[in-house]
Structures are given as structure tokens and as C-alpha cells.
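User: Please predict the structure of the protein below. I'd like the answer in C-alpha cell form so I can feed it into my own downstream comparison script.

Assistant: Understood. Taking the following sequence of 467 residues as input:
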Amino acid sequence: MATLSVSNQSYWIDEMTCKRIASGESWTEFSKNMGSEQGSDAQMPVFQVIMFGWDKVCGETERGFRLLNVIFWLIGVAAISYFLKLRGKPTWGVIMAAGTSSFLWYYMDEARPYALQFAGASCLLVGYWIIIFEQKVPRFCSWGFLLLGTLMCAGSSLLAAPFAGLIFLCVTYDQWKKRVWYQRSEMVWFMGWCLLLASLTLYYVWTLFEGKGASSVNKTSALTLGFSVFEQLGFMPYGPGRQALRSEGVSSLAPWVFALAGWAVAMGAALLVGGDRVFRGGLFKPAIVRALLPVVAMVVILVVAGYFGGFRVIGRHFMPVYPILLIITGLAYVKLWSGNILQRGITFIIPMIALIGCLTQRYAERHHKDDYRGAVGHVNFVSKDGSPVWWAAAKPSYAFEDSVELHDTRNINNESLHKLPIPTVIVLSKTDLYDARGALRKWIVEHDYQITKELPAFKFYQRRVVE
């Protein structure tokens, strides 16, 4: 089921950057690609190294390049299941919840670090929870989870690194309180963890001094935080799609209100039942505050950093929250299945609705990614004779034909537009990113160009033919 989530759709903007970096033929070329990258991709060291290796094995197609996310999914689910088993709880509910999670399905279909963050956050939380609750488990087990989780989570993104730091502080306090630092075996593990965190910290400090970092085009707001909740709770498949939400805002949800309300009832029931099992059923007793403290602190840090740091924070950045949501949903399924026939029916209905949502998100055109592959292909077709093309979109990783006369018109001004040759076709993608001043759209209207073709996130304009 997890492999079904991975598509062969075109790479979109951020995936193309990842593919470009990973495509280096040698370690030297890969290092140069990382060094020249000025965006947030330079702040994903472990993820980029993994993708560099994976590209040499399965990087021939888009689907092959993304398939590694299924392994990350398996690691995350296995870690959560292991903890539940230690606590005497059934694991099938969490496996079902993870297998029908539209949130995880979406990010397994992206060659980005978010599935790796899910795996890392799950391992970090499980390692931390074992130290708190399961004193009889061999210590190398908890330390193994902590080190692996730090490597995956903190090494996947600068924004995910603080979560590893928070877990580090919580574990350090717990170990100090229990007075176990004097054991040599504990010190060896702890010093290895310190070395790993210090290495990643030094790397991130270097990237900041070099001016590398996330784009500041979009900002964190109440709407983006609302979208984070909307996305993590699994509402995306039942709505209009990301492209419509981006261009039309909240008003685009109106035609989908009944589908969204239906999922709200289903998910609300799961959260109520599962929440009772988690918070009152003894899973984290007697230390529920300590168990959830690093997650709550991470949410606060991200919100504050997003507001005052000038970058956008959305659902995928709150990945440390998601293992807890999966546990709540999974335990809800287990609880309902142990009830009467009606409750068992609900246990069947909610995952089925979720699975239908996953398949809708995977195959419905409104949920498709930015189609750069199709856009480049169409430009190659209409510009065989070498006629001028204006391109207002990201630089693609797909190749234009040599005959194409391409002109970059991203966020171009009026004066520069009038110096360019009259185009046969104008390609315009997300206007907030590539025509923020509106100069290109104004020129299109003034010169009577019309839309002749649309692809996900793309519009193609050509001069109106007067008969």
C-alpha cells in the first residue's frame, strides 16, 4: 500500500533542485553542487547524501527516485510499533493508520526530506520514551533509536534539527536526575550523541554564515498555521487541491464543504476515542508531561521562528507531531474494534474513507504536482522552428531542445519586457513566485494573448488569432 503512494509524475520545483544536486556523477561533483546551492537544500546534508547514493541505484525515473521514502515510512512505523508492543498495546491499528494516512502518502510521493523526518522523529520519540518508561529494555536499544533518529531528523533539515536538540536536553535531564552518568557504557553512548549533534550544528552554522537558507517569499500567518492542521489531520484529499488553495485561498473550499465535513466527523471520532486511550488509558503514565514536552516545545519554536524569521511554516515542518497523531488514531481503531458491532463497523468505515482519500489524492488531477516535464515537452513541440518563448517558471531539470529560443521572464519589469522579441508562446507558472509585480500578466492582456493550454501549475499563452 505504501508503494502505491509513489507516482511517476513530473518533479516539481523543490524536487528538481534535489535531483540536480543528487545527479552529480562523482562525490566531487556532488560536493560542488551542495556548495553552490544557496537555498534550503544546502541545509539537508544527510538527506542529500542519501539521495546522491540512491540516485545511482534507482534514479532513472521519477518514481524510482522517490521510492526510497517507502523505506523511511517502514522505519518510522516499525519504531512506533515497537514502542506500543513494549507498552502492551496492539500495533495493527497504528499500521492501518499509517497505511491510510493521506499526509504520509503525499510526502512519500516527494523526493524531499519529509518522510526521512517522519522516520527520524519517530525514532527520537521512541528512544526518549523507552528511557522514561521502559527501564528493563537494554540500554543500547534506546541509545540506538536516539542516534539513528538524530542522524535522520537533525540531518534532514535545519528546521528539524531543534527537535533533536530538545530530545537531547530532555534525555540529559532524565539521566542526570537518575544519576546514571557514572556508568561508563552510558557515557560512551552520550559522548557519541554529543559528537553527532556538534558536527551537524557546526555544518548548519557554516551554511548560515554562507547566506544559505529557505526562501522568504512566503510568510508564516494564521492561514498557513491553519493549513498545517488541515494537512496533518488528513483533509487535503477531500478539498480542491493545493493549486486552487494557493491561487484562490479559503474560498476554494466552498464547493467541497460536505466532503470536508464528513471527514471532520470521522477524524474527530478517531481523535476523541484515541485521545482518551492515550491521555487517560495509561500509555504515557505517569509522565505524560515529560513524554510530550519536546513535541510541544518544537511546535512553539517553529511558530515563533516562522513569524519572526520571515519564512513559511506549514504541516510538513511539524513532522515531530505526526507520530503522536498516528498513535492516537491507531489506538482508536483498536478500541473501537473491541466494542459492539456498530463500533466495529466504524473501525472499518473510517480507514476505508481514509484510503479513498489517499487514492483520490494520488490520482485526481486537481492534486497533481507542478507539471514541469509536460511544460518543457509542450515548449519543445510549439517551438520547433526556433521561435521565441517567454518562460516565467523555475529553471527545470528537464531539457529543452537546442532549437528553442528561451527567454527568462521571471518577475521581469515593464522596461525589460519591451526589449525582448515578441514570443510565440508565454509560459507562466505560480504568479506569486514568478510574476509578483504583475508586469507579465499586464503585457499579456495588452497584447491580446489568450490561454491555449493548461497543465498543473502552468498556463500557456499565445496571440489570439483573428479570423
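That's the full C-alpha cell string. The first helix runs from residue 13 to 22.
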